[in-house]
Amino acid sequence: MVDHRSSPTPAVTPPHAPSPLAAAFSLWAWVPIRSLAPRHRSRIADHLKALGPHDRYLRFGYPATDEQIDKYVEHIDFDRDEVFGIFNRRLDLIAMAHLANVSMPQCGSNAVAEFGVSVASKARGRGYGARLFEHAVMHARNRGVDTLFIHALSENTAMLKIARKAGATVERSGSETEAWLKLPPETIATRFGELMEEQAAEIDYRLKVQAHRFQEIIDAITEVKTHISNKPPSASG
């Protein structure tokens, strides 16, 4: 691991403002991202344990075992950090991000948050990692965070591509790479945007819960009908 205490203060580049066309496309391609809470620990653990060995290696920087994942999930501080997730229609957690508040001496009194993300293999190629990063940036700005930090393996090209695209300064040190993104202050737009996203994501989740329960009822009825139709007729006297 890189010793952050001895690292020089990095130069960071503010992210570029999105064009009107990009902003419109972002709205059209909206993805429901929901804040996670302690009650979601088991779902977080299931999501991370479903990652293959190489994906675990990229996410944690080492080939994490199930026991190590359980310990990581158990120690997530939901009062200090923020965890976001994307659920599919079956209420499976298919992507999640951990935005951890950290203290780094080289950053002085500036507030710094570290970003980590994972996406299920079946949900790759849909831009979920980038969406979670954008959501984390907006959330961090609204909480007064000055700098977003990413510590990743150099071979984690997908994560580093997201960081570079956002305008982060990326510094490689052998097998490990650090990315630093200077965040502008919050605005009315970021406050309103986060509020609208949270409300929309909550409505989306509740609709998925209702649809899931309705499907369970339909499946139960179908199973009963199948059982009755397959039951042999009783012998007559």
UniProtKB/TrEMBL annotation:
One of its GO terms (molecular function) is acyltransferase activity, transferring groups other than amino-acyl groups. It comes from the Bacteria. CDD domains: NAT_SF. Keywords: Transferase. PROSITE patterns: GNAT (PS51186). Residues 31-186 form the N-acetyltransferase domain. It holds the Pfam family Acetyltransf_1. This is GNAT family N-acetyltransferase. It comes from Piscinibacter terrae.
